[in-house]
Amino acid sequence: MSSRKRRSYEAENELANILWSLGFAVVRGPASGSGVRRRFQPDLVAAKNGKILVFEIKRCSRDETALYIESSQVLGLQEWAKRAGGEAFIAIRLPGGEWRIHDVGDLEITKGGNFKLKDLKKGVRLRDLLERIEPKSKSLTEFLESYDSSEHHA
Amino acid sequence: MSSRKRRSYEAENELANILWSLGFAVVRGPASGSGVRRRFQPDLVAAKNGKILVFEIKRCSRDETALYIESSQVLGLQEWAKRAGGEAFIAIRLPGGEWRIHDVGDLEITKGGNFKLKDLKKGVRLRDLLERIEPKSKSLTEFLESYDSSEHHA
Questions:
Q1: What is the pLDDT confidence band of residue A140, given thresholds at 50, 70 and 90?
Q2: Cα distance from A63 to chain B (closest Cα, Å)?
Q3: Residue (of B118, B102, B124) closest to B66 by Cα position
Q4: Catalytic residue chosen out of the listed positions B32, B72, B146, B150
Q5: pLDDT band at A7 (very low <50, low <70, confident <90, very high)
């Protein structure tokens, strides 16, 4: 496995473990390039009490201020969410380990027909995303506050 | 990839393609043995309009009359479905290509504490499963009837 692939795998696995520990059912998709052309393969799917979230996962380095994503990935993600009756997100792992979750609708279309995500830090934190999904879940909020504080120490 | 793994991969992929062509959002889990211990990794998850199905997939040979499944797999599958608010199934690919879908509740517990599935052909056909999920979906039923007839020709 290349270093880049391994780091990408580690980020997916980290988010999967956080969501699993929060009570979500989680499944990571198979590694990209596994030869499937007919279906879109998401990076990560999480579900809880009938709510379905599908994620494209990216990590960014210190000098990146924007991310570019191929249109086929974004459109595939949206199609997947529509079929499932769920919501589609781009999850960004910032340097240091904080996560920011961007709604697919926040992407801009580039002149080349692909998608661009600016303001990587502007996405919501995990706890805010989950608060939106499960309002007033006290213990969940407490749990995520402990996650967020550990992020600040990273 | 060993021949056994490849055949298992092909069966998972086949069911994934059928469900995708029926309008489901589908994600196959990563290959087993990908080093994740903390979470249960299902073979296949399919979702449509907020309904979530999770599958353990097996193929059986002509001389098999029962299948044995490790308790960790069955309990993991049930836990996954419970978290997601979905339903858990064992999907069996019979020799010749027909599929039979068994409810996890149909499994028997063996003396060794694992699970046994008898009467492999007794599970429901895909069309009956989907009819249960989406009653009165005319076009779906027609589509699956064409699948079932192609199965008979296999």
A1: low
A2: 31
A3: B118
A4: B32
A5: confident
Cα separations in angstroms, B102 against A27, B91, B107, B128, B151? 21, 6, 8, 11, 18
Distance from CA of B141 to the nearest CA of A (A): 18
User: Given a cut of 90, is residue A37 above it in pLDDT?
Assistant: no
Contact: B50, A80; criterion CB under 8 Å: no
Cβ distance B41 to A28 less than 8 Å, yes or no, reads yes
> And the tokens for B45?
């998850």
Is the ipTM beyond the 0.90 threshold?
no
Q: How many angstroms separate the most distant Cα atoms in chain A?
A: 45
Residue to substitute from B44, B52, B75, interface A, most A β-carbons within 10 A: B52
pLDDT < 50: residue spans in chain B = 153-154
Give the residue among B154, B138, B105, B126 at the shortest CA–CA distance from B16.
B126
Per the annotation, the verdict on B32 as an active-site residue is yes
The closest of B92, B94, B90 to B63, measured between CA atoms, is B94
- Sign of the alpha-carbon dihedral angle for A19, A25, A29, A30: positive
Burial class (CB in 10 A: 0-12, 13-18, 19+), A123: buried
pLDDT given for residue B134 in this prediction:
78
Question: What is the least distance, in Å, from the CA of A65 to any CA of chain B?
Answer: 31
pLDDT for A139 beyond 70: no
Give, in degrees to the nearest 5, the angle at Cα B82 between B25 and A47: 40
- Which residue of B26, B75, B78 is the best one to mutate when testing the A interface, meaning the one whose CB has the most A CBs within 10 A? B26
Where on the phi/psi map is residue B71: left (φ > 0), alpha (ψ -120 to 50), or beta?
alpha
Read off the pLDDT of residues B45-73 as tens digits, 9 standing for 90 and up: 999 999 999 999 999 988 888 999 999 99
